Amino acid sequence: MKPQKRGLTRAVGRAVRQVLVGREPAPAWRSPGAAQAAYAAALLAAVLLAAAALGGVMLLARSFGAHPHSGSPGHSLGLLVVLFAVVAALALTPRFPLMAWRISYLAVLLGPLAAGGRGLDGGAVTVMLVVFVNAGLRRPRAQLWTMQAFMLIPAWIWIDRWAPAAVVTAVVLGFGGLTEGIGAWHRARHALAEQTQRADTLRDRSALLEERARIAREMHDVVAHHMSMIVVQAQTAPYRLEAGTVSEPVAREFAALGESAREALTEMRRLLGVLRADAPPEHAPQPKLADIPDLVHTARRAGARVALSMPPQTRAVPAGVGIAAYRIVQEALSNAGRHAPGAAIEVLVDVREPAVELSVVNGPAAGRPPDQGGGHGLAGMRERAAQLGGWLRAGPAPDGGFAVRARLPLTGAVS
User: Fold this and answer.
1) Residue 49: band (very low, low, confident or very high) from pLDDT cuts 50, 70, 90
2) Which residue, 58, 165, 184, 225, has most beta carbons within 10 Å?
3) pTM for the whole structure
4) Cα separation, 45 vs 88, whole angstroms
């Protein structure tokens, strides 16, 4: 036997084995509510079908009493067994769809024997097709085709005329094609959703890494300034003090301190050089909290309606906190301009022990935003606040606008 034929034989054997005796995993519900709705619908259908089955059996029993030659108690009992098997299949459909199909299929295949050879029961066939669609949507294509092939067997066994058998065959094939089409569409949607989620995750991570690199570059400038001042002060201390007041050991300590600071500065620049490899060096001083009014003035010149509430003379804050506050306000103003053009913007800056509190709130958009795409500025703002041990909250405002609020500790530990 050729390898292709052996592979096809194995695939068919695996599909048949899985359909007949294979285990099935628990269904993956989208939500608890969806699972509860499915169970409730299946239970209701089973109850209604059971009531109809009992009514049918009672009618058959009365008919048998009135017409002794119309049937036998054994046939009525067999029909009752078939009907209750169909009820069990409906009840099992949400949790065990493949098991439900097996039960309904056996009811259709063996039902004519239990009912005295009266042919296929239309209700049982209908339930089998419904259960088949539900089970086939969760099975691979090979198993779907195998189930479809099995369902053709009762039609050609119990229908003695070829025309009705051909009709039943066409119906089964039609249900199989419908199930295949719906399953392919569902799988394509699921794959697209996974790819979209994966792409969004990668974009968020990339944006977060870029923002961290930017924070590191800015903090490098701040720390480098302080380290340079340490080097200068340590090396010039013996000359700035009065002659004779600095002993030789102390002078050597100052020299060692300056050398250590210079080495630390060199190592830090070498390490941060990697972060500057993909960005041009910035020669301008890093922004600070006192530069926020200039930022608001620039936004006003661009046409934005911005109101600023900020103490005229803010107390000195750490350089890292000042940079973070400036960047958060800058990004919030940028987002407001993109997503709510023409809306009024209110910026509040409050500096009081032990933190700097920021609030940027814009009203609803006066026109259609030119940029409807989702940005990643919020991730960067949250990262800046988290680096300082603070927090940032952003979300819709009660009036339909958007609010960004942050708290940056003045002396908080870096998280």
Assistant:
1) low
2) 165
3) 0.48
4) 10
